[in-house]
Amino acid sequence: MTDKTAPTQYVFGPVPSRRLGRSLGVDLVPRKVCTMDCVYCQVGRTTRKTIQRDRFVPTDEVLREVREKLAKGPQPDYITLSGSGEPTLNADLGKIVGAIKEMTDVPVAVLTNGSLLHKPDVRRDCARADLVVPSLDAGDEETYRRVNRPEESLTFDKLVEGLAAFRQEYDGPMWLEIFLVRGVNSDETQIDKIKSVLARIHFERVQLNTAVRPTADPDVSALTEPELQAIAQRLGPDVEIIADFRGESYEQAFHAADEDVLDMIRRRPVTLEDIAAGMGIHQAEAVKRVGSLLGLGRITRDRRDGKDYYRAV
């Protein structure tokens, strides 16, 4: 369970991940600073859409928090650069990956939407990681705009070119996540177009996801597990489903954290900011806990005055 006496600003967890086991998260940009505004995002709507890289957070402080978390334990399976926005926007990404690898043998993963991989400096930074997991949610420009709502200068061709260029330069494992939204990018035409991209670029794993958790746009509709299985078969043999249809905790060790959040929500309706501040945890960790409780049907979400409030069922 999280140490409430020593809240961290940039590092959260370890939290359970279906793909990465015990994942120690590192947040390199403020909440919802991103290159896209994806309809399915579980963190919420993008508040600042940009492609300009910057030093959004103090690098020395981030590394100090990582070092302290590792010293306290438990040992994570991965240190994951992801969090509340697009991590490749941080201009110190490569420096941070290198410094973390000097302090620990725990592998470093970068979870990215892939939109900036057409930039050589971004590819160089990501190439320092032990694992890179980009996304591809469309097979053409029109669908890319509908699903991912990227910054104006970003195009589908740039996305694919960046993925292909990084694959040529990067010797480490590269997994691809595809997030499917019913009626938008799930028809056979889109799947076949995505398959044609997969034929050009080798990924060690291709992972299918869908909206089993609350999303930025409330009208996003999930596919069923059998539908995802059919699409996986259509795409090829190295495709797996990572969507959590059962709403179950991945590790019992994290169950108490969910119960602590639920106890807080039972007292009064609260926002993510309230949960993070009240429990001394990072907002990204609060998002994980709330997503778990929503998936289990133990809380509901209401929107009032432009804010999401969570109530116990």
The shape, in one word, is globular
Return residue spans where pLDDT drops below 50 for at least 5 consecutive residues. 1-5, 248-253
What string gives the helices and strands in order?
A: EEEEHEHEHEHHEHEHEHHHEE
Strand line-up across the major sheet:
1-2-5-6-7
**Main beta-sheet annotation:** 5 strands, mixed
- The end-to-end span amounts to 23 Å
Average pLDDT for all residues: 89
CATH architecture of the largest domain: Alpha-Beta Barrel
**Number of separate structural domains:** 2
Number of strands: 12
Strand composition percent:
15-25%
Helical stretch count?
10
Radius of gyration based on Cα positions: 19 Å
- The level of helicity is 25-40%
Query: At the first level of CATH, what is the class of the largest domain?
Result: Alpha Beta
SS-derived structural category:
alpha/beta
Topology of helices and strands:
Layout: E1 11-17, E2 21-27, E3 33-34, E4 48-49, H1 59-72, E5 78-82, H2 93-103, E6 108-111, H3 120-126, E7 131-133, H4 141-148, H5 156-169, E8 175-180, H6 188-200, E9 205-210, H7 225-235, E10 239-241, H8 255-267, H9 272-279, H10 283-295, E11 299-304, E12 307-312
Parallel strand pairs: 2-5, 3-4, 5-6, 6-7, 8-9, 9-10
Antiparallel strand pairs: 1-2, 11-12
Helix pairs in contact: 1-2, 2-3, 8-10, 9-10
Describe the structure concisely for a colleague:
This protein folds into two domains: 11-245, TIM Barrel (Alpha-Beta Barrel), CATH 3.20.20; 249-313, Winged helix-like DNA-binding domain superfamily/Winged helix DNA-binding domain (Arc Repressor Mutant, subunit A, Orthogonal Bundle), CATH 1.10.10. By secondary structure, the chain is of the alpha/beta class.
